[in-house]
Structures are given as structure tokens and as C-alpha cells.
Specification:
The radius of gyration is 22 Å and the shape is elongated. The protein has two domains: about 1-75, no CATH class; about 80-210, no CATH class. Strand 6 and strand 7 (about 145) form a beta hairpin. It is built from nine helices and seven strands, in the order H-H-E-E-E-E-H-E-H-H-H-E-E-H-H-H. The strands form three sheets. The protein has a three-stranded parallel β-sheet. By secondary structure, the chain is of the alpha/beta class.
Length: about 210
Amino acid sequence: MLDVLREKIAVHELDKLKHMDWVYIQKHHKLFVSVSSVALNQNPNFGHHIEPYLYTLPESFSTYSRLFESFGMEPSFTRSQIVSILSVIKEEVHDDSPSSVDQEAVWSTVMAVLNWLTENGTQNVGAESHVYVPVESSSEWPDLRELHEPVYTDNDFLKNFISASESGSSRPFVHSRINQSLAKCLASLPSVKSSTSLRTLLEMQVKMSL
């Protein structure tokens, strides 16, 4: 098939194949995926296990690497491809159909992507689209939200106070797995961890009790 494609495919047909699931990943139950989910090689700066969200081209297809590149396959995973993992996980959890049955493996992937992003261009993370952060919820799976939605605090008392207060924030809290240093790198996260915020909320509590 690939030999035929290499010899017969017309230029105007390339775009159609770019959006079709036709790349065969044999080791995953005869799975077919689109070229946007595959790269010729792993990103050298991202060491976390990337499957089943993205795949490297099987060695058996290495002879056809130039053909795959003509369809838009990247030499190695790009930043946007790695970010797209968060979108995939968000949708899978929402639809109750995660690719992995191992919750900790999914959490590990989410944290690996977020840490990688902040280590490779922190100044752009807050402005990027499709970057999601886990929030506190009743689910044991990562509940991912857009960066502008949640509020970050590392103060448990303050978190409990806001949650119990009728006048508190209606925004969800960033999950406790997101530590302070990572939260600072995710620059667009509103913070309610300062002592000023705590004093203000305590004053509110006094007024409510009168």
C-alpha cells in the first residue's frame, strides 16, 4: 500500500490523508491513527512515555519516512502535539472513556506535560490555547479546566474557608498535586494565597456573624 501511495498519490489528495486515520500502529491492537498523532521520532526534551496519546512511527515503516513527512508527519513531537495530550485526556475523562485504566498513569502524564511546558517556555504557558490544569473534584481522574477557570491556594485553611463561605469564590481550586512553584509558572492562575486575602476573608467572617 505504501509503495502505491509513494508512486501514485496526487498532490491534491494529500490533504485528505492528513485528516484520516490510516497510519497502522501494530502493537496497539491493530490501531489506525492520523499522521497528526504520530512523529518520526520522540521529542528529545520530553522523556515521559507518550502512548497511547501519541506514537512514534514503527521501525518497519522507516523506509517510508519521507512519504509520511509529505503528509505532514513531524520529525519529532512538536509543542502543540504534546499540549494536545491534555485535550485528549480532558475529553476522555469527560466521556468516561480513558485510554488507560491506570489512574496514576493518566495523572503522571498530565503532570509530565505541565512540568515540561513550564520548563520549556514558561512565559508562553498562560497565553497558550488548549492548556488545561487539574482542579479539585470528586473524581479520582484528572478534572482538567482552562487556565483562567480555577483559583490556586496552598493554604488549606483558606481553601476550606472559601469553600464554606457563601460569599466565597465559585471557581474550583487547582488540584493539590499542582505545587506552588508550578502554579507560579502557570502565570494566568489567579492566586488567593496571600496574607492580605486571608485577613480580608476573616473580616468577612466576622461581619457575617454579627
